[in-house]
Specification:
alpha+beta, 7 helices
Length: 208
Amino acid sequence: MINKVIHVTDWITAEDVPTMSNPEYKKLVKKWGKFSGPSEPTGNSIHGCYQWAHVKDIETIGDDLIHKDIGYIGTAKRNIIDRTRAVIAPKGAHPIKMILSSGQITMEDLRVRYVITPSDPDSVQAKTAVNLEKHLHNEMNDNFGYRYKWVEAQLSRDNQHNYVLKNFRELTYPKAKMILPQLIEITKQLGAEHVSGEVDLIVNGETE
């Protein structure tokens, strides 16, 4: 799958992720993808994967597309640049925001690069990009035991609480006060189910 890559950009800061009005956006999309301009934004496409990393790891990662310090690897249906903007947009939704909201990494720490695959025709190349993402994830997992270093940046049972906390912080005080009793009841119910499960294990002789 690596042979499908036609270009890898330099690492850039999160604040330098180009918007559509930025000349760099037009330059990248026009050269490596399909540019329809701001009048038809859904026509802009640039396929491939994007990789996020911490600024302190950039030098050790170098040109490697598979490296233990690559923080996150993702793709998009049509436009990988647009997808990465979701990280920096105040209301954007992206798994990286779980890391940011937890305080483990700051926006200033983030660096991103684009691993670009062909963009014509879109329907075929979108699949190529997905396959590349899968390949990179598999190679990372085979070599290092994880798809990417920031395993917290995924909606698993281990970190769903980060989504809850992030959304809870965005509530006004009256709204938070209104739903707090429900959260307490849910916590009690989950606690009761947990204890019940432990008792069942003991009764069935499934614990030491």
